[in-house]
Amino acid sequence: MGRYDLLICDIDGCLAPETSEPMNIEKLSLIADHNRLATARQDRPIITLCSGRPIPFVETLCRVLQNTTVPCVAENGVWLYDPSNNGYAMDDSIGPDEVKMIHAAEQRMMELYHEHGVRIQPGKSASLSLYHPDPNYLESIAPAVEKEFHSQGWPLRVSLTLFYINCDFSQISKATGIRRLLSQTGIDPHRTAGIGDTSSDLGIAEVVETFGCPSNAIASVKAAADFISEHEQIDGVLDF
What we know:
The protein is an alpha/beta fold. It has two domains: about 5-90 and about 170-240, HAD superfamily/HAD-like (Rossmann fold, 3-Layer(aba) Sandwich); about 95-170, Hypothetical Protein Ta0175, Chain: A, domain 2 (Alpha-Beta Complex). It is built from eight helices and twelve strands. Strand 6 (about 120) and strand 7 form a beta hairpin. The longest helix is centred in the middle third of the chain and has 18 residues, at about 95-115. The protein starts with 5 loop residues before the first strand and ends with a helix. The model has no long low-confidence stretch (mean pLDDT about 95).
């Protein structure tokens, strides 16, 4: 085995566009081939996923990429999906009260913003993501969303991607999800690398030994990176 046992990769803006554009199947197949060889020969790092996407999305891509052994992080740390036993594990800090809080927050966001074209991304369990086709509109309402959560006493962190406002419990992040993954597998964090492109991916950088980003990453992510590819999205991942 080389220097790394595990490469932890974001999805949107890294392996695939955040928009509804098709994924590049040919280039994803290169990663799938890598994972098949990593499993068979144990001479290179497995590539697993760490994403804000709902767990069914992450599970599907995990299977496409032929990762059969190492858990993936979904919903910005809420879930671990373990492909070795088809297991689903929610963060222990989330209980019935937290789920009720998310439902209340969803209802309040729809009361405030539905008529302006904001929609809730389906499929999430203990977080919510607000979608609007105009990123400038999302940026304009993000401070008001954060203020509303504070006024309601909801401990939700607000962060922006290109087309979404992610609203996550303050105690949960990609970093906490990765730490759960490493604890479960026994993988040494000093033998891990990661790649991401937006602010939530700073949680990946917080844990892994070496962090990289594609050229489309935001400035704060580039500032945290040990390696910045000259290429965008999946080409940047393959470069890394």
